[in-house]
Amino acid sequence: MKHYLYDLLIDKGFSVDTAKYLNMLALLIALLIVAFIIDFVTKRLLRRFSSSIAKRTKTNFDNILITNKLPRNVAHIVPLIILIEFVPQVFSDFPVVEDIIEKTLKVIAILLTLRILQSVLLSIRDYLKTLPRYKDKPIYSYIQVFMIFMWLLAIFSMFAIVTGISFWEFVTSIGAVSAIIILVFRDSILGFVASIQVTVNDMVRIGDWITFDKYGADGDVTEITLATVKVQNWDKTITTIPTYALISDSFKNWRGMSNSGGRRIKRSVILKASTIKFLTDADIVRYKKIQLVTEYLNTRSDEINTANIENDIDKSVLINGRNLTNFGVFRKYLQVYIENHSALNKDMTMMVRQLEQTTQGIPLEIYTFSKDQRWVNYEYIMGDIFDHVLAAVTYFDLGVYELNLETQSAIN
Question: What does the UniProt entry say about where the protein is found (predicted)?
């Protein structure tokens, strides 16, 4: 049958070479059409069959297999087998082309096997992640290690197919020169492995802002290659980092901050402990004129007065009973102030907290996030907040710690 068209063309007066080429072309087109139709039909049948099975079963593992495209990858097996089987018939008159096509199809078969295996492993990973006992286990790391070995075997097999030698002969020859290869191409091999892990784990992307103290890098990633990662620092200098350093050393990627919708403000002002005091009635009346704490003082002072009266507290001595302090009222004032600040992200943490006392005084920290993440605007917002904080301190009879050089010299 394969020579039917050839004989027909010869009878029509075509030359032998022309008849061979036209016969091969016709058979190739027919084979590709058949393979395409079988692939399409097989894909549809497997998809319907797998979907039907998934609906009937209680487990969601089969659903995960479909999500990871296992049926689609398996559907390619049948047309690929057909192509491998009939290619010798199509190119029987062209042995060189036949050999190239056969080797190409075998390489494709190896790659398809890897895709099927990867779909199964990813499905296992996704399924185990749904189980409570495996949620905190590094399953994907084990899969990565296994896939690296499988890729090595696949690469060796593909080279063996292309070169025409047996797999074990190829592996043996590779082993003989592996020491030299590792020595000469050490950085490239490390970079290759690192590039795979960086890509698979999505550790760094071009455009990410990273901080890498070991290499003095603090800026945007502009280029990622097999051997190096280029970072343009904020002073416009360029820092080059070995790609393998991204997996061997610790660095900070600010992408999470960029995607969060806010940039953290975490700064404190140190207040003198000697300026903290209980509030008298006169102090409370005076502080009530500060609008951001008026409502708070009205509510809290009424609660405290009621509690002191009910417990028959002697308020002739200020320390007795419950009291307000200027430090506590100032802390509340700053909390309300940042909650009403238009440049801060209200959907993220907003907190004013008292830190542990130091030899200089008591730090009062503002912990919040600005809406604008751009560096210049961020610094302006933070400066605007603390300009206000420092100016507001005296309204609450508090003092900011400042080192007295004369006193320090006398002590020394």
Answer: Membrane
Residues 80 and 92 in one domain: yes
Q: Is 390 helix (H, G, I), strand (E, B) or coil?
A: helix
Q: Give me the pLDDT at residue 14, please.
A: 63
The confidence score (pLDDT) of residue 337 equals 96
Q: Are residues 239 and 289 in the same domain?
A: no
H-type alpha helices, 201-290: 245-248, 255-260, 281-287
> Does residue 270 share a domain with residue 252?
no
Size of the chain in residues: 412
Q: Are residues 10 and 34 in the same domain?
A: yes
Domain with 317, as residue range(s), is 263-408
Answer yes or no: is 94 within a domain: yes
Residue 159 lies in a domain: no
Q: Where are the alpha helices (DSSP H) in 311-363?
A: 326-339
What is the rounded CA–CA span in Å between residue 101 and residue 304?
90
Burial 355-385 (b: 16+ CB within 10 A, else e): eeeeeebbbbbbbbbbbebeeeebeebbeeb
In this structure, the answer to whether residues 235 and 273 fall within a common structural domain is: no
Place of tokens 């779909």: 119
Last residue of a domain, one of 212, 244, 260: 260
**Cβ contact 309:322 at 8 Å:** no
Amino acid at 185: F
- pLDDT at residue 138, as a whole number: 54
Name the pTM for this structure.
0.53
Q: How many helices (H) and strands (E) does the chain have?
A: 16, 8
Cα–Cα distance measured from residue 244 to residue 371, given in angstroms and rounded to the nearest whole number? 35
